[in-house]
Amino acid sequence: MNGKVLMGMTCFLVTLAFAGSAADLKGRVLDKDGMPLADAVVYLTSKNPTPVTPPSKPAVMDQVEMTFIPHVLPVVVGTTVEFLNSEKAVIRHNVFSPTPCADRFNLGYFLPGQKASFTFKKPCRAMILCATHQEMKAWVVVLETPYFAKTDGQGVYSLSVPPGEYTLSVWHETRKTEHAQALKVSANQTLDIRLP
Ligand SMILES: [Cu+2]
How far is the CA of 130 from the centre of ligand 1 (A)? Predict the structure, then answer.
């Protein structure tokens, strides 16, 4: 093996090693008073987007005691979401979305133990409603990036991302516009994000 080939291989291996090392990004999403915001979706996009691969198994949004669980479901484009009905009583749900990028789908009525599904083919902030229970509301946040996380009850998010330059965005149902800021990721870091 000559020196040139060896050097080429070494460069290739170093590149591989670098591409494989992801940095951990974590922190909290807070409102302007410093109170934590649950169910916010934090996601990173870049000029060279990473293609997304929908999961082979569907994502799940259940309905229990006339509540959608989870309240916010972030997925990548192409993901099929199964809507379940896990009511103990005989309660019919009729899941639909009034949102155009979710084709204003309407899954019709289904009973406990039955399910219906929809595949989200476009980036979307799809509002999910039930035609029979006006108080029921949820969101499917359809993203074009694999780098996202949802905040927990304490407003905490955590994700892993390859080093690089990104736009960090935050969606929250109470905000009309999404927060966006430039972010350079080079190592593990903690970042609290305040929404106006
Ligand atoms: Cu319902």
Answer: 5
Examine the pLDDT at 10 and tell me if it is beyond 60: no
Question: For residue 7, what are its two tokens?
Answer: 């050097």
How many whole angstroms from 101 Cα to the centroid of ligand 1? 22
Cα 59 from chain centroid (whole Å): 11
pLDDT for 49 equals 85
Tens digits of per-residue pLDDT, 95-154? 999 999 999 999 999 999 999 999 999 999 999 999 999 999 999 999 999 999 999 999
Taking the CA of residue 104 as centre, how many other CA atoms within 13 Å lie in the half-sphere pointing to its CB? 2
| pLDDT at residue number 50 | 87
- Please give all residues whose CB falls under 5 A of ion ligand 1, grouped by chain where several chains appear: 93, 130, 132-133
- Residue 2 inside a domain? The answer is no
Token readout for 1 is 């093996």
Alpha-carbon distance 48 to 162, whole Å? Answer: 12
Question: CATH number of the domain that 97 lies in?
Answer: 2.60.40.420
How many domains are there within the chain? 1
Q: Is residue 190 part of a domain?
A: yes
pLDDT at 7: 53
How many Cα atoms are found within 13 Å in the side-chain-facing hemisphere of 127?
12
Q: Is residue 173 part of a domain?
A: yes
